[in-house]
From TrEMBL:
<dbReference type="Pfam" id="PF00920">
    <property type="entry name" value="ILVD_EDD_N"/>
</dbReference>
<protein>
    <recommendedName>
        <fullName>Phosphogluconate dehydratase</fullName>
        <ecNumber>4.2.1.12</ecNumber>
    </recommendedName>
</protein>
<keyword id="KW-0004">4Fe-4S</keyword>
<comment type="function">
    <text>Catalyzes the dehydration of 6-phospho-D-gluconate to 2-dehydro-3-deoxy-6-phospho-D-gluconate.</text>
</comment>
<dbReference type="GO" id="GO:0009255">
    <property type="term" value="P:Entner-Doudoroff pathway through 6-phosphogluconate"/>
</dbReference>
<dbReference type="InterPro" id="IPR042096">
    <property type="entry name" value="Dihydro-acid_dehy_C"/>
</dbReference>
<keyword id="KW-0411">Iron-sulfur</keyword>
<feature type="domain" description="Dihydroxy-acid/6-phosphogluconate dehydratase N-terminal">
    <location>
        <begin position="68"/>
        <end position="381"/>
    </location>
</feature>
<dbReference type="InterPro" id="IPR004786">
    <property type="entry name" value="6-phosphgluc_deHydtase"/>
</dbReference>
<dbReference type="InterPro" id="IPR056740">
    <property type="entry name" value="ILV_EDD_C"/>
</dbReference>
<keyword id="KW-0479">Metal-binding</keyword>
<dbReference type="InterPro" id="IPR000581">
    <property type="entry name" value="ILV_EDD_N"/>
</dbReference>
<feature type="domain" description="Dihydroxy-acid/6-phosphogluconate dehydratase C-terminal">
    <location>
        <begin position="405"/>
        <end position="609"/>
    </location>
</feature>
<feature type="binding site">
    <location>
        <position position="156"/>
    </location>
    <ligand>
        <name>[4Fe-4S] cluster</name>
    </ligand>
</feature>
<dbReference type="InterPro" id="IPR020558">
    <property type="entry name" value="DiOHA_6PGluconate_deHydtase_CS"/>
</dbReference>
<dbReference type="GO" id="GO:0019521">
    <property type="term" value="P:D-gluconate metabolic process"/>
</dbReference>
<dbReference type="Pfam" id="PF24877">
    <property type="entry name" value="ILV_EDD_C"/>
</dbReference>
Amino acid sequence: MKLHPVVAAVTDRIRGRSRDGRERYLRLIEQMASRQRGADRMGCANVAHAFAALPANDKFKVVTERAPNLAIVNAYNDMLSAHAPLGGFPEVIKDEARRQGATAQVAGGVPAMCDGVTQGTPGMELSLFSRDVIAQGTAVALCHDVFDGALMLGICDKIVPGLLIGALHFGHLPTVFVPGGPMTSGLSNNDKAKVREQAAQGLVGREALLEAEQKAYHGRGTCTFYGTANSNQMLMEAMGLHVPGTAFVNPDNELREQLTREAVRTVLGIIRQRRFTPIGQLVDERAIVNALVALLATGGSTNHLIHWVAVARSAGITIDWNDFAELSAVTPLLARVYPNGSADVNHFQAAGGPGFVIRELIDAGLMHDDALTVREGGLREYTREPGLQDGRLAWRDIGPSRDPQVVRPAGEPFGATGGLKLLQGNLGRAVIKVSAVPADRHLIEAPARVFDSQEDLLRAFAAGELENACGVNGARGLVCVVRWQGPQANGMPELHKLTPPLAVLQGKGWNVALVTDGRMSGASGKVPAAIHVSPEAAAGGPLARLRDGDRVRLDAVAGTLEALVPPDEWQARTPQAMPAAIHEDNQHGLGRELFAGFRRRALSAEEGACTWL
């Protein structure tokens, strides 16, 4: 199938825009790859230190026999249900490496925080910046420089982007990403959301809410909604950085260990065969566009409009939100997975999963099927699903959709366009996840109520102020604006706790929307939310000019976000400064002092909120 002209044009534009940066990057990784291997290049004391703890046989292999030595960078902890299974992976990897005549070492661990634990707390203000800490931790692990390839063990929100950013700064190394899979299905996401809305209204108490939450989040593995963590896995498949079909196999499925062993064989295959493709060569403009298309076709996480900008930068590639918007306009929505449907990721996998979506996109000319992957068979290998045959891995064709309510072919999509939309106007540039928002809510025009924190909004809701404001002067609605939530202000936390109260108002028939320079997480749902507003208020952005009562128009159809204030009056307004109390509160407690430099250096959301440039 010929490549869609818009996909081709966006790719060419990215390639042209990135030419100088990409060429510099490729020259650097070529220089790094052309050096002698570490054990031959480094001083004897360095080599002795590097391999002192290895068993004698492994030490002999890597030093004397010059066997490949693999780095394991592990995001294991047992605070994250998704990462708890990773504790046992290194021994499996080391065992398989030995079987293949190689060695493997845990080069380092990186932090992995759970946004589900920190939602609505000051700890969430470290969340976005943890991505860059993870990238730095990956660099610390790999800077020992005695490795011939790497395996990245991670799954969740900031962890995979952080590992990928770090790995791309060691782009001369062949690298494979190794996930752990989702937990089994518990309480449905729809039922969980209903209980949350009941709790927001005071109809059920803490005991009932906790019971529902524990039924939803109940075991080892990734949370089962299609948020940032599971969007990560979809993108890793689309970029060809996984063993094909690895993303959504449950941790305790016997297939999981075999897929982890196959990851070892895959990275060794790249090292040993003529087709040497380190990760820096593999992640090119085609791979980045493939990731964006896969995100849009599945209604994935809005967080990736930040993360993949940073990922691309790490490979010498520059992308922006216009690229997302143009691809979204021609990418059909092929999946309905919560929050833009009722299915969870286990249902998605059973219906055909990533392989079905990737096949449909390739066949529709919407993905680059000539993009490099960690497998010799290229991206077509990612259109098949793995299984066990006589105890050995085997891949088979997925066939047609096994549930048309969950995944559909490109010729019969759920929607003609992707799940994300760019908004722009005198309030700046923002994004909205439209795939989960009812069509009659794509246009909201109502008076603004401006808040300086999410806590202020929650207090106003509890006091009945928001519902009262919805009916003032026949307004029939309200646009809630929460500012001072960008990267420079407080680390750009997710404001997911705001969804239940706003959903309650919407359920009562009011026209409500959220506008913020913060994030709303991969679980952005049915309430229209213009998020990531850039430039942010703390940088003098337009939200700092907005006042209570100004009419705001959020139009996801036309792609606009406007304060309906006369232009002369709007320009005459002096942007307000962040209230001193808010600024002071953002600086202290729960380790936030350590991230002051990150806040000062952070770029805008559209620039990836990068802190290392």
